[in-house]
Design a protein that fits this description.
The complex is a heterodimer of chains A (309) and B (311). With 309 residues, chain A is α+β, with helices and mostly antiparallel strands. Chain A contains nine helices and 14 strands. Chain A has two domains: 146 residues, Protein Transport Mog1p, Chain A (3-Layer(aba) Sandwich), CATH 3.40.1000; 124 residues, Protein Transport Mog1p, Chain A (3-Layer(aba) Sandwich), CATH 3.40.1000. In chain A, strand 6 and strand 7 form a beta hairpin. The two termini of chain A are 31 Å apart. Chain B has a single domain, classed as LarA, N-terminal domain (Rossmann fold), CATH 3.40.50.11440. Chain B contains eleven helices and twelve strands. The chains are: A alpha+beta (309), B alpha/beta (311). At the A-B interface, helix 1, helix 3, helix 4 and strand 7 of A face loops of B.
């Protein structure tokens, strides 16, 4: 658990550093090219929420748009994580149908990988999932789903809103089209013992280490023991090996690290008081790390390396 | 015994001198500091029905404030009181992103019972304000209790000298400075960046301008606000607690019952206890540590020997 608490701290430091470097408002950033891109994105978003829609709703106010420079105005500190995933544009539109009121937020995250990352950052394995878009979950008064480069969050209030939420989601999903699958890497790695809906994609500083960016993280559970499988994506095999060397160096300096030839060519096992134990190997353009190796973690590492060949 | 009047006189002079150097509500805050500093009220059961939760919230609020000596310790006849809940989000009370309206309405009623002339309730919402005020249930509850509850007018934010460590001046809602009592009424909830939104963070709702800039040095900016405002009283709503995906929330699966209301005059102590409602230590939260370092209060809330009530 310490590992993840530390990761959160690093994430916050990273965010603060990014905040110092970023312009405070739209007036000081942007430029013509950026404005053009934003205009196109806004027009695209508007096509998703045009009439006709389920329940023939009215719109109490015009849609509003937010970009990276003013997302804070809409969601205060909630904006930080969205910015971490290179959020592009948000369309917010309220609807009213009878006594039901709906708030629709469509976040254009720029690409499907970042959209997945943002969606997954707010998701928990215990939620009530349903089949809309790539994946959706709902609870009383909310329905959130992922599709293509969009993260869509619907909130419903008043009698009849819960019925309307799913109808709205299905219409929006149909209009959005595009990619309706998880990132392909997640399909390749082992399914056995995987904790369903635990997959994450971390854009910046996974586990607090910039050299591990970006990375997928998935939980695996055997009995009561849970391990985290981290797959850091490199440009090529040389960079993946360099990431492994950086990881080994970090553990040598903060704890201990030794070769683990029985896990594969170049594999290591390491530990320190912060992260606990890890085993790792470079495979092609991937660095594969198992954090808190429990159960048959060695088999998980080897199988993942095999699957990613 | 002879020393007592002299000691009292010296204490008063010291408090007065300190108050002159401090924020707009500092004199009253210091004067009110002669009694229990922290009071924690907890409900043994967790009612599920709306009426039961409303009754629980009202009783917890009354009991927490009674534990400090009652509202008359903070509000005098003729006072104009600003009550500052979290109305930042287009969320229902059950979603625990905004302060429980029954906590707010109980505070308003207690203010009037103590002799307040006028109670004002407002916040600078993040989500569209008109919707958030209605959805949170706070506007209706506040108005029923006799308070003036309005959406902030952008023209009323005035550049104000804060003399802070990182905020020399900032746009503050002028009406909030025109009152003579200020009661901060946050909800305890998760926050993606600073881990928890509690009382000190809730003060962002009385300032305007480009609030995103606060997030570049959140700890210091929040503590600059806390040092400036120094609320007369903080009442923390911990009845329902948003434990993940804050501050926006929305998913009831992220909401847990803590059935607690905390009242205090030490805003650092209130937030420190509030952190524990989220499974955190005060030391985990940067702005609490910074506020403690600046001697705005204590993280060691147990040292205040809090009054505790189990209902």
């Amino acid at each position: 658990m310490k590992f993840w608490a530390r990761r959160t701290s690093w994430l916050i430091y990273g965010l603060l550093a990014a905040g110092f470097l970023s312009p405070p408002c739209s007036a000081s950033g942007g430029g013509a090219a950026r404005t053009q891109v934003t205009d196109v994105a806004q027009k695209q978003l508007l096509t998703f929420v045009g009439a006709p829609l389920p329940g023939n709703p009215t719109t109490p106010a015009a849609p509003s748009f937010y970009g990276p420079d003013n997302l804070y105005q809409y969601m205060d500190g909630g904006a930080d994580v969205f910015l971490l995933y290179d959020f592009q544009v948000l369309l917010h539109q309220d609807f009213k149908s009878g006594q039901a009121e709906l708030a629709v937020d469509i976040f254009d995250m720029g690409n499907s990988e970042d959209a997945f990352g943002m969606y997954a950052a707010e998701r928990a394995p215990v939620y009530n999932f349903l089949d809309v878009g790539v994946e959706a979950y709902r609870n009383e008064g909310i329905l959130n789903f992922l599709q293509d480069r969009y993260y869509i969050k619907l909130a419903g209030f008043g009698p009849g809103s819960d019925d309307l939420l799913e109808k709205f989601a299905r219409v929006l999903s149909e209009r959005i089209g595009g990619t309706q699958t998880f990132p392909s890497l997640l399909e390749k790695i082992p399914q056995e013992h995987r904790v369903k809906h635990s997959e994450q994609f971390t854009r910046k500083d996974p586990l607090g280490h910039p050299f591990l960016s970006p990375a997928y993280v998935v939980s695996y559970k055997q009995g009561e023991s849970e391990s985290k499988l981290l797959i850091s994506v490199a440009k090529d095999a040389a960079e993946a090996k360099s990431k492994l060397e950086s990881l080994a160096k970090y553990f040598r300096e903060s704890g201990k690290c030794e070769a683990a030839p029985d896990l594969g060519d170049g594999a290591i096992q390491a530990s320190n008081t912060f992260e606990g134990h890890v085993i790792a190997i470079a495979q092609g353009r991937y660095l594969i790390v198992v954090v808190n190796p429990a159960g048959d973690a060695a088999a998980l590492l080897k199988k993942t390396a095999q699957d990613l060949k | 015994m002879k020393d007592c009047p002299r000691r009292t006189f010296l204490k008063t002079m010291a408090l007065g001198g300190a108050a002159l150097k401090l924020g707009p509500f500092a004199w009253d805050a210091l004067a009110a500091a002669s009694g229990p500093a922290l009071s924690i009220a907890h409900y043994r059961t967790s009612p599920k029905e709306p009426d039961g939760i409303a009754e629980e919230s009202q009783r917890l609020t009354r009991e927490a404030i009674a534990g400090l000596g009652g509202m008359q310790r903070f509000v005098n006849r003729g006072d104009i009181v600003w009550v500052k809940p979290n109305i930042g989000w287009n969320r229902k009370p059950e979603q625990a992103a905004t302060t429980n309206p029954d906590v707010v309405s109980t505070i308003i009623a207690l203010c009037y019972q103590a002799g307040a002339k006028h109670v004002i309730v407002s916040d600078n919402s993040c989500n569209p304000a008109v919707t958030s005020f209605a959805r949170s249930g706070i506007q209706e509850a506040a108005q029923k209790a006799g308070a003036d509850c309005f959406v902030m007018d952008d023209r009323k934010f005035k550049s104000t000298k804060l003399n802070g460590k990182v905020l020399p001046a900032w746009d503050v809602y002028a009406d909030a400075l025109g009152v003579n009592k200020f009661i901060n009424v946050p909800i305890a909830k998760h926050h993606g960046l600073c881990k928890a939104t509690l009382g000190i963070k809730n003060l962002m709702g009385v300032v305007g301008g480009e609030r995103n800039r606060f997030h570049q040095d959140l700890g210091n900016t929040l503590v600059d606000l806390a040092a400036f405002f120094r609320p007369n009283l903080v009442v923390l709503d911990g009845v329902r607690v948003l434990t993940a995906n804050g501050p926006t929330g929305g998913n009831l699966a992220d909401v847990q019952r803590r059935d607690t209301v905390v009242a205090g005059v030490d805003q650092v102590a209130v937030d420190s206890f509030g952190a524990t409602l989220l499974g955190l230590k005060p030391q985990d939260i940067g702005y609490i540590v910074e506020a403690s370092n600046r001697k705005l209060g204590t993280m060691d809330f147990e040292s205040l020997k809090p009054h505790r009530a189990e209902l």
